[in-house]
Amino acid sequence: MPLRLLKYGLSRDYPVSGDIPATPDLKPSYDVVIVGGGGHGLSCAHHLSKYHGISSVAVIEKGYLAGGNTARNTTTIRSNYITPEGIAFYKEAVELFEGLSQELDFNVMFSQRGQLTLAHTEATLRSFHARAEMGKHLGTRTEVVDQKAVEKLVPSLNMDYGGALEILGGLWHADGGTARHDAVAWGYAAQASRRGVEIHQRTEVEGFEVVGDRVQAVKTNRGRITCGHVLIATGGMNYDVALMAGVELPIRCYPLQAMVTQPLKPWLHTLVSSVSLHTYLVQSSRGEVVIGGSSDPYQLYSTRSTLDMKEHLAEGAVHLFPFLQGVRLLRQWAGITDMTPDYSPIMGASPLENLWLDCGWGTWGFKATPVAGKRMAETIAEGRVPDILRPFALERFETFRLLNEMGATAASH
Amino acid sequence: MKILTCPMNGPRNIDEFQSFGPVRAEPDPDRTADADWSRHLFRAENRRGIVIEWWRHVPSNYFFLAERDLVSNEIIRTFDASERRAQP
Ligand SMILES: Cc1cc2nc3c(=O)[nH]c(=O)nc-3n(C[C@H](O)[C@H](O)[C@H](O)COP(=O)(O)OP(=O)(O)OC[C@H]3O[C@@H](n4cnc5c(N)ncnc54)[C@H](O)[C@@H]3O)c2cc1C
């Protein structure tokens, strides 16, 4: 076996394919400089080069490719939000995931297995009705289901009949699913670099040269680059990076933690989330159970994990699926999330003419990787914010037109 | 387990406390332009550094202030709100 593998390894017919070229020297100038080589930045680079003929693009990443929140997220993809603006946007997000493996010629392992959110109180159930009606109206598959249907969807659930946390019903979202986060980022990176986009890893943006109302140059630890346009897509660092250009975003940073168990036989075929327990679970294609919950209870710039959160998530998971009690944890981790006051992103224009924002992705931005990249590329290429993005403008905080998605975001992302 | 020392109840598990975010100026709503009011509502302190925050000990419903480092998470000191009012 090893010898046969070696034959392929050494054969010229099967060259090692380096999907992403090594970091080249920085050029003095690019049409578009994308700050942040996470899923969002790479998706924008892909769309600029493939659909808008703009390939003089540099993606500047301070660490390694997609090592920020793209690497840390629990990969929930869904569109069962609250506001019509939010649902319309995330609906396009889900649709793009449906065709993403074809688009990228790379298997992103999109698994549209549906998401079940559980209600343990009448109040939660009422809020589900509102979400389901809005979702149906906008053409997504979102419905309220009763106890019997919940039992049928997930037979191993502890319904807790008569108990304090009895499951009264659920919000069933057949469009929901998951995908492999690394594959999404690497697929975009491979496509973009094939079309001439340069990906500069271990290159940190340290400041911007602002002249009048334009960014003239981007200062990095490897040199200065002048730019036509700049996109900020730096995940948890969005507040800091925007501030370097003098733009103060309404963002506060909170850690978000998650953990994963040892692999088990496939038994959980949907995504499950509980509003009251602040816990959600999904079984990965490797069989590991990924468990996540709400953000840390106070602001912090740290990716440390806590025992408190581990206990909290384990408690929720074991309550829903008591047989998980003896299962071991493999890993626990955290990402710094850029939280906005209304749990919606900030996309579009900034106070500077050629500086664009793809920020405020908090705990919910993985699912938007394709759509945000597509729509931000369109924005930059055409110099006009498309209608679907307009509600997410930074100005909404000054006009008090917030898009409150807290109720659809705080317990599952 | 992280311990927070409450000015009234002494050292307690941080689970017993609720964070109310960084202290901010309290503008007069009748004399504040919309843009400033928006700043007041939506742009809380998010600097990498030491901030003063409102905290509440939930069981005793006691509000107080804490100075905390947003990077190291070190709680530098906690004090009663009257101390803040006493400051010029
Ligand atoms: C534990 C956890 C669970 C989550 N679960 C979900 C989920 O289930 N579903 C969902 O939709 N979302 C989820 N999210 C949110 C999601 O991960 C993010 O919103 C999304 O990945 C953001 O992608 P991005 O490309 O914008 O940012 P990132 O992936 O964070 O990429 C930003 C990049 O910018 C780089 N960078 C930062 N500063 C600089 C600089 N000065 N110069 C150069 N580069 C810089 C960083 O190194 C980083 O690689 C979760 C997040 C966490 C932490």
Layout of SSEs?
The complex is a heterodimer of chains A (413) and B (88).
Chain A: H1 2-10, E1 29-35, H2 39-51, E2 57-60, H3 69-72, H4 84-98, H5 100-104, E3 115-119, H6 122-137, E4 142-145, H7 147-153, E5 169-173, H8 181-194, E6 198-200, E7 205-211, E8 214-220, E9 223-232, H9 238-244, E10 252-263, E11 271-274, E12 279-283, E13 288-295, H10 307-320, E14 329-339, E15 346-349, E16 355-359, H11 369-382
Parallel strand pairs in A: 1-2, 1-9, 2-6, 3-11, 9-16
Antiparallel strand pairs in A: 3-5, 4-5, 7-8, 8-9, 10-13, 10-14, 11-12, 12-13, 15-16
Helix pairs in contact in A: 2-8, 2-11, 4-11
Chain B: E1 3-6, E2 10-13, E3 17-22, H1 34-42, E4 50-57, E5 62-69, E6 75-79, H2 81-86
Antiparallel strand pairs in B: 1-2, 3-4, 4-5, 5-6
Name the helicity range of chain B: 10-25%
SSE-based structural type of chain B: alpha+beta
Secondary structure tally, helices of chain A? 11
Please give the number of β-strands of chain A. 16
- Describe the global form of chain B: globular
Q: In the CATH hierarchy, what is the architecture of chain B at level 2?
A: 2-Layer Sandwich
What is the oligomer described by this structure?
heterodimer
CATH level 1 name of chain B: Alpha Beta
Give the class of chain A from helix and strand content and strand pairing: alpha/beta
Question: Would you identify the regions of chain B where 5 or more consecutive residues have pLDDT less than 50?
Answer: none
Distance between the termini of chain A: 43 Å
Low-confidence stretches of chain A: none
State Rg of chain A.
Answer: 22 Å
Protein name (chain A): N-methylglutamate dehydrogenase subunit A
InterPro entries (chain A): FAD-dep_OxRdtase, FAD/NAD-bd_sf
Keywords (chain A): Oxidoreductase
GO molecular function, one term (chain A): oxidoreductase activity
